[in-house]
Design brief:
mainly alpha, 235 residues, Cytochrome Bc1 Complex, Chain D, domain 2
């Protein structure tokens, strides 16, 4: 064998070996079983792909309220979280994830997400010995009284007219109110947005938590600031 043939043979051995090592490092063997998307039951994977983009990778919020907020988990039961995840919230940025609502997730996968959220982030001790306002309003609030409630509990951050102050932005911005539901406003008033420095219902005024009626009333006042849609427009 001449010198050129020896070099060629050695080069082929090196290339083949590198190819084998690259194949082993780049993924599972070709004959590895493929898991159908609807059979994935790993919480971290399901939450990361479907929830983290808006609610934060660690449940501490991003574009939407943090699902790891212990106050939120104290007022929203599993059935509520499952329903919202499955069906979404019409007229808001919250989409439906259940297959029977046009999404990609099975009921079992949504159950995995709900259980994972509860197991990882619920902290019952964080709300021990306090009277929690109910998740849903027990009746229509009084917007007129809500304006007075806003003045006491919210104006120091959001400004006297709700259009923003030094600590926080406008809470009556039409674009914002058009994208959120009354329930979202209520949930935010109760649970706060700690990652943004927004307190929960207990600490807007130290030592003077909001009553359930005051929560409903301030939400009614905020809702009244929402721009009215023109006839024929859909939300």
């Amino acid at each position: 064998m001449n010198h050129r043939a020896v070099l060629l043979a050695a080069w082929l051995v090196v290339v083949t070996a590198c190819g084998v090592r690259h194949s082993a490092a780049s993924g599972p063997p070709v004959d590895s079983p493929v898991i159908p998307p609807n059979r994935i039951m790993d919480f971290a994977l399901l939450y990361g792909r479907n929830c983290a983009g808006c609610h934060g990778p660690d449940g501490k919020a991003d574009l939407a309220i943090g699902l790891g907020n212990p106050v939120y988990l104290a007022i929203a039961d599993d059935a509520t979280i499952h329903r919202i995840t499955a069906d979404g919230v019409t007229g808001t940025a919250m989409p439906a994830f259940a297959q029977n609502s046009g999404g990609m997730l099975s009921d079992d996968q949504i159950d995995v997400i709900v259980r994972g959220i509860r197991t990882r982030w619920a902290r019952p001790d964080a709300v021990r010995d306090v009277v929690l306002p109910p998740y849903a309003a027990q009746g229509p609030g009084d917007p007129k009284h809500g304006e007075a409630v806003y003045s006491v509990y919210c104006s120091s951050c959001h400004g006297a007219d709700g259009r923003g102050g030094a600590p926080a932005s406008s809470i009556v911005n039409g674009s914002y109110l058009a994208l959120v539901s009354d329930q979202y406003l209520r949930t935010t008033v109760i649970a706060g947005r700690p990652e943004l420095g927004a307190p929960d219902w207990r600490t807007d005024v130290p030592g003077k938590p909001m009553s359930p009626e005051e929560v409903s009333d301030v939400v009614a006042w905020l809702s009244a600031q929402r721009p009215q849609l023109l006839e024929g427009q859909a939300r």
